[in-house]
């Protein structure tokens, strides 16, 4: 009996020992399998992420002082991230004095710049975050022959300045007298929908900067850009120069809204830029300029335009009218909105000079005054 009892106890202990060893072996096997599976899964994930193409960074609308920003590009089911530094305050690839190449067609400009510009005329630096975002607003009509030259010159100019920008060409529909100011208001309101932009460059299609040290950076006060132009032999010493605000200028949204945009009543060439100067003065702002040896502009040749013979009389009556004449009173209809490879084209119906009550009132008053 004693021997049998001892034998049974030994067998029980032996069974328990083998059971423990089997459990340990099974546990080790499971852990090993889990490690292998996790390693394989991680390897597959790394391969998947490395295959994701890095796209261009998203559009930035941050102003000065931006040092870094997180960019994202996505494939079907994975995300890669990279941090871009802020662009330097002085762009590193500026050339200084520039030659303006004239008579460039739109197709030639597209062939030269198409790869570096997104449809609609959007462009931004690839390797840093732009300090400023700028909408370039260009009013025109019957100037298609100058568009290619403008695009060819300005895309290179703006890209070297490492700006986040887009170019909007605002065309007036119909055959009425040209109203540059209304088109500028339309351009501001329509481009604002795709912003906000840090500032807006109101730019004639026939004005091209001749020095890229003339930076299109936003400023605390409205900036007059076209300081010295070739059509006046770059002279800046006459009296009218100090109140000249034409050709090209740069304003923030706050500046534009503070003066209620541009006057709507100047039909025909001239007057609207002088009116804007007065609006800026009435709003207790001042106009800033770069030195004239930097702010030089080549003026492209064009046919003479119908002149607003009443512009000076209308201007003299601007004694605070800007509160009711501008962005808050313009009526227009966008007839076409088209993305071209190097610009966004907006065709606008801006009304007629014959059914503008404020223009008729001003004109009738001027006739009365001239007859007295």
Question: What key phrases describe this protein's structure?
Answer:
8 helices, 13 strands, disordered C terminus, Spore Coat Polysaccharide Biosynthesis Protein SpsA, Chain A, single chain, alpha/beta, 34% helix, eight-stranded mixed sheet
Secondary-structure topology with pairs:
Blueprint: H1 2-50, E1 68-74, E2 79-85, H2 106-113, E3 133-140, H3 144-160, E4 164-172, H4 180-192, E5 199-203, E6 207-209, E7 223-224, E8 228-229, E9 248-252, H5 253-258, H6 272-282, E10 288-289, E11 296-299, H7 311-316, E12 333-339, E13 344-349, H8 357-371
Parallel strand pairs: 3-4, 3-5, 4-13, 7-10, 8-11
Antiparallel strand pairs: 1-2, 5-9, 6-11, 7-9, 12-13
Helix pairs in contact: 2-3
Describe it for me?
This protein has helices spanning 2-50, 106-113, 144-160, 180-192, 253-258, 272-282, 311-316, 357-371; strands at residues 68-74, 79-85, 133-140, 164-172, 199-203, 207-209, 223-224, 228-229, 248-252, 288-289, 296-299, 333-339, 344-349. The longest helix is centred in the N-terminal third of the chain and has 49 residues, at 2-50. It has a single domain (106-371), classed as Alpha-Beta Complex (Spore Coat Polysaccharide Biosynthesis Protein SpsA, Chain A), CATH 3.90.550. The strands form three sheets. An eight-stranded mixed β-sheet has the order 10-7-9-5-3-4-13-12, sandwiched between helices. It has a three-stranded mixed β-sheet with strand order 6-11-8. The chain has 372 residues and is of the alpha/beta class. Mean pLDDT is 79; it is low at 39-81 and 357-372. The protein has eight helices and 13 strands. The N and C termini lie far apart (147 Å). α2 (106-113) runs parallel beside α3.
């Amino acid at each position: 009996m004693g021997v049998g009892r001892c034998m049974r106890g030994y067998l029980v202990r032996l069974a328990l020992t083998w059971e423990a060893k089997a459990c340990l072996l099974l546990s080790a096997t499971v852990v090993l399998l889990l490690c292998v599976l996790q390693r394989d899964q991680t390897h597959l994930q790394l391969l998947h992420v490395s295959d994701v193409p890095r796209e261009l960074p998203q559009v930035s609308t941050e102003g000065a002082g931006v040092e870094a920003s997180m960019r994202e590009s996505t494939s079907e089911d994975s995300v890669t991230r990279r941090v871009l530094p802020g662009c330097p305050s002085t762009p590193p690839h500026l050339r200084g004095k520039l030659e303006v190449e004239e008579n460039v067609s739109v197709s030639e400009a597209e062939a030269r710049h198409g790869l570096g510009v997104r449809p609609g005329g959007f462009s931004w630096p690839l390797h840093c975050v732009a300090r400023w975002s700028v909408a370039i607003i260009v009013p025109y009509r019957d100037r298609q022959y100058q568009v290619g030259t403008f695009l060819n010159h300005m895309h290179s100019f703006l890209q070297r300045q490492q700006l986040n920008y887009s170019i909007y060409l605002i065309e007036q529909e119909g055959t009425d007298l040209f109203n540059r100011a209304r088109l500028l208001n339309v351009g501001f309101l329509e481009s604002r929908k795709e912003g906000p932009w840090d500032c807006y460059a109101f730019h004639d299609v026939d004005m091209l900067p001749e020095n890229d040290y003339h930076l299109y950076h936003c400023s605390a006060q409205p900036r007059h850009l076209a300081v010295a132009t070739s059509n006046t032999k770059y002279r800046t010493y006459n009296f009218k120069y100090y109140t000249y605000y034409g050709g090209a200028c740069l304003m923030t949204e706050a500046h534009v809204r503070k003066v209620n945009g541009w006057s709507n009543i100047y039909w025909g060439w001239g007057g609207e830029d002088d009116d804007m100067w007065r609006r800026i003065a009435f709003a207790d702002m001042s106009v800033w300029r770069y030195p004239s040896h930097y702010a030089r502009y080549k003026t492209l040749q064009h046919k003479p335009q119908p002149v607003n013979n009443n512009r000076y009389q209308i201007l003299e009556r601007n004694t605070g009218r800007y509160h009711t004449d501008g962005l808050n009173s313009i009526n227009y209809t966008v007839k076409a909105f088209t993305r071209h490879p190097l610009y966004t084209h907006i065709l606008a119906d801006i009304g007629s000079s014959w059914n503008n009550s404020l223009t008729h009132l001003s004109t009738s008053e001027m006739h009365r005054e001239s007859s007295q």
